[in-house]
Amino acid sequence: AQRVTQPEKLLSVFKGAPVELKCNYSYSGSPELFWYVQYSRQRLQLLLRHISRESIKGFTADLNKGETSFHLKKPFAQEEDSAMYYCALRRGSTLGRLYFGRGTQLTVWP
Amino acid sequence: NAGVTQTPKFQVLKTGQSMTLQCAQDMNHEYMSWYRQDPGMGLRLIHYSVGAGITDQGEVPNGYNVSRSTTEDFPLRLLSAAPSQTSVYFCASSPLGTDFDNYGYTFGSGTRLTVV
Fold first, then answer.
1. Over chain B (116 residues), what is each successive 10-residue block's mean pLDDT?
2. Closest chain B residue to A89, measured at CA
3. List of chain B residues whose C-beta atoms are within 8 Å of the C-beta of residue A34
4. Residue in chain B nearest A42 by alpha carbon
5. Tell me: the pLDDT tens digits for A45-66?
6. Which residues from A are below 8 Å from B41, CB to CB?
7. Among candidates B78, B95, B83, which has minimal Cα distance to B25?
8. Were both Cys, which of A15, A58, A98, B17 would link to A88 (CB 3.0–4.6 Å)?
9. What angle do CA A84, A106, A25 make, to 5 degrees?
10. Geometric angle at alpha carbon A94, from B106 and B37, rounded to 5°
């Protein structure tokens, strides 16, 4: 079985402060991890995928297999980062299916 | 490209009524799925399909039916609406294989359903 846990339902930071959204997973195989973001009144969209090791909008995420984590980080938060963030996992054997965490609502105050 | 189109955007139903939420994609994606989004519960998978004629249940399939007669369309049917089905419903599609790793899911804009 697999599970994605986002321990923080709500997270608030001030503009310019660092932000870290936590994601832990449980899966015995080799997972593929993703971060999706939903801005207010918009559709969900892909933010990051672990295999690409890229930085999008200043966000990065590193897959730590030892700690089974895929935390999302940004050194200096901006007000436009306020959104709902979902961590998602795909098992290597499951065609296309994603397992989502419960999401973290990030608010960046001015 | 229109991407993933969901209709309607809003709907109010009375308990016991039935209706169909429409989802269409024009990207020739093999994989399509329906999720419901509830506060504190995240996204929960209702049904999914890996191709025309193939569907399977997700985490919360009770009260919902799906069919996939074409690659483009994946309608979700509520058989007898209940207040517990009040939610925001999202349709998502993706290619399979390595293209999934590059592009992930494409989501529709959602249908906000209220059952009274």
1. 89 96 94 92 92 93 96 96 96 80 82 96
2. B104
3. 104
4. B109
5. 989 888 777 778 899 998 888 9
6. 102
7. B95
8. A98
9. 65
10. 45
